[in-house]
Amino acid sequence: MTTATAPAAPVAPARPAGRHLVTSLPGPRSLALHAAREQSVARGFGVVLPVFIDHAEGAILVDVDGNRIIDLASGIAVTSVGAAAPEVAAAVADQAQQFTHTCFMVTEYDGFTRVAEALNRLTPGDHEKRSALFTTGAEAVENAVKIARAHTGRPAVVVLDHAYHGRTLMTMTMTAKNAPYKDGFGPFASEVYRAPSAYPYRWPGGAERAAEQALAALEEMVLTQIGAHRVACIVAEPIQGEGGFIVPAPGYLRGVQELAERHGILFVADEIQTGFGRTGAMFACEHEGVVPDLVVTAKALTGGLPLAAVTGRADVMDAVAPGGIGGTYAGNPVSCAAALATIELIEREDLPRRAREIEALAMPRLAELQQTSPFVGDVRGRGAMLALEFVTPGTTTPDPDAAKAVAARCNAQGVLTLTCGTFGNVIRLLPPLVIPLPVLSDALDVLERATLELS
Ligand code: PLZ
After folding, report:
1. What is the CA radius of gyration of the chain?
2. Which of 52, 245, 257, 390 could disulfide-link 402, Cβ–Cβ 3.0 to 4.6 Å?
3. Longest dimension (CA), the chain
């Protein structure tokens, strides 16, 4: 038997797997699209890097000029499974062909129940739980407050310095930072009280005393200023996100939970940015062994479709009578399908473990950078939620210009990098959890060089 030798297939030029720029950023096509945008889109939307995306491949965003950009943003902690996970795309397409919407308050569908079951199973604590699905993070935070008020019959809500909870009237009130979130948008909602955050790097009494002193201040506020019997809930991010990736001093979250319990106050964890493996545990509260009464989630719950949730103690959740919570799009079926596919991927690929691998690679390099660059005052975070805080050398004075300069250099070189922080002086790393480690390593090279160029 003779075998005919097939003519060799033409060899396609090797396509780069990682970062690759073919124009300066933004390229000409993006510039033209951006000019068009300015004629039709309201000015109030900012943009970090004005490139227009054509498609995504894992942790790479490919723009309309053909540039391949490393994604260290994940659409602000959303696309942990990547922005084009085939399993999520298929689930979305299938569901969209079945039906796109019924409104869960009109007729039912099982995807909603199955997402609720998954959330009840995955969130901290093995007590009986119920979940309610919504559309955006802010909407879910607002609903957590409504549920807490309905259950306790109390009006007051306690939040922290450096908090971010959203842009709606209630959640903007709960958010700490004035510009750009609150400036000009008042008057604000009433019965929101702000306690200090146990921010180790900036605690006046020193990092070691931050937990104890912040808890004392919180207790004094609850007891003397508000009256404990008037407080419905304390809402806290277990690692503060927009406020600067602030990991609270050890023991602080536990202390908040105990204080809340002593006074019949509900402890609500806003895990919108930290949830679903981002910090190396499924939920960031787990690092402190804290079981909140209510947990608010959104973002990485799906691969990018709008879906948010409040999950918590069944007796608390069920304090609201039928019709008391909901929304036209709450728990949209396409978003639910995306969530189920995403949760399956997170569990199957053990993405919390991937977050710990990212930390193991990146944290030593960031710590080294803190030694070599006098501009890096603090390095912190957990898992794939890591940050550098920039200061004027030799001081702890925030240096937002340094952070902005470093982020701008990274962005120009195709490493999409976000800043954050009350003082705007923090660079945060939020890569998709599926980022290949060599790609992350390349991004860190760029970040290191950009930081060492500061003078
Ligand atoms: N709670 C902890 O991180 C959203 C906001 C970006 P939405 N964070 C990104 C911006 O400038 O608008 C967030 C969060 C935490 C609540 C929210 C709000 O979630 O889905 O943006 O409403």
Report:
1. 23
2. 390
3. 94
d(CA 233, CA 155) in angstroms, rounded, equals 9
Kindly state if the Cβ of 196 falls inside 6 Å of ligand 1. Answer: no
CA atoms of 150 and 143, how far apart (whole Å): 10
Query: Which residues sit opposite 240 in a β-bridge?
Result: 246
Q: Rounded to the nearest 5°, which phi and psi values hold at 316? A: -75, -50
The closest alpha carbon to 170, from 197, 195, 140, belongs to 140
Q: What is the pLDDT of residues 190-237, one digit of tens each?
A: 999 999 999 999 999 999 999 999 999 999 999 999 999 999 999 999
**Do residues 288 and 239 touch, judged by C-beta distance below 8 A?**
no
Q: Is 136 in the pocket of ligand 1 (CB under 6 A)?
A: yes
**What distance in Å separates the CA atoms of residue 315 and residue 331, rounded to the nearest whole number?**
21
Phi/psi region, residue 37 (left: phi>0; alpha: psi -120 to 50; beta: rest), is: alpha
Residue that has been written with the tokens 């297939």 in this structure: 9
Q: Which ligand 1 atom sits nearest the alpha carbon of residue 274?
A: 2
Residues in Cβ contact with 95 at an 8 Å cutoff, skipping those fewer than 6 apart: 111, 333, 334, 336, 337, 338
Q: SS3 for 450?
A: helix
Nearest-atom index, ligand 1, CA of 46: 11
What is d(CA 278, CA 359) in angstroms, rounded to the nearest whole number? 10
CB 269 within 8 A of CB 277: no
252-297 pLDDT, tens per residue?
Answer: 999 999 999 999 999 999 999 999 999 999 999 999 999 999 999 9
Quote the distance between the C-alpha of residue 234 and its chain's center: 19
Shortest-distance Cα residue to atom 7 of ligand 1 = 137
Ligand 1 atom having least distance to the Cα of 181: 11
Q: Please report, as a single letter, which amino acid is at residue 365.
A: R
